[in-house]
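User: Some background: our group keeps a shared notebook of sequences we're curious about, and every so often someone picks one and asks for a predicted structure to add to the entry. Today it's my turn. The entry only has the sequence so far, pasted here. Could you supply the structure so I can complete it?
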Amino acid sequence: MKLGHLWSMVITRLTFMISGMMIRLRFWPHFQLGGRVRFFPGVRFLQIGDAALLKVRFAGANTIGQGTMFQGSGTIHFGARSLCGPNCIFGANTVIDIGTDVLIAGAVNIRDSNHRFDDPARPIVAQGISSTPIRIGDGAWLAQNVSVLEGVTIGPHAVIGAGAVVTRDILAGAIAAGVPARIIKMRPGFEIPRSS
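Assistant: Of course. Here's the predicted structure to add to the notebook entry:
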């Protein structure tokens, strides 16, 4: 182990011990702060799997609510000034990319993976997972208790209503709600594209 890597681990662990956060990442070069980030107590970073390398990047001026958990073996990126409320879960095995100025309310669950269940002769737990990146556009708002599932892109400035389960892409400037989430109207200045 290189001396610089060891020193980085020691400094990072001390920083997070002081702020009362639980850290279980093995390789600390995979944690990046691009600017000041405010972490409330109980924020957790959990690496999944022996060879996993969870990478979490904050562009700066971010706020991460109490009890929020980052887990997996992929990359999670928070754009500048994006924030989340308490008790959110970000599970990445490929990529969760959150744009700038995104507002994520409390208890939001964003996961880029799902269990496979194609073979009825085998237990689901033995069939592995599928994983596809999630992208959340600049200026979007995800209200309380929203769930975002694998492969979804939420367009810039979209609004997702409380309790919605997002299973497919949402247009820029759309207001979507329900289970599964459907577009109920467009924000002023945005239109649904006309099909020719």
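Suggested note for the entry: The first strand starts at residue 22 and ends at 24. The two ends are 60 Å apart (CA to CA).
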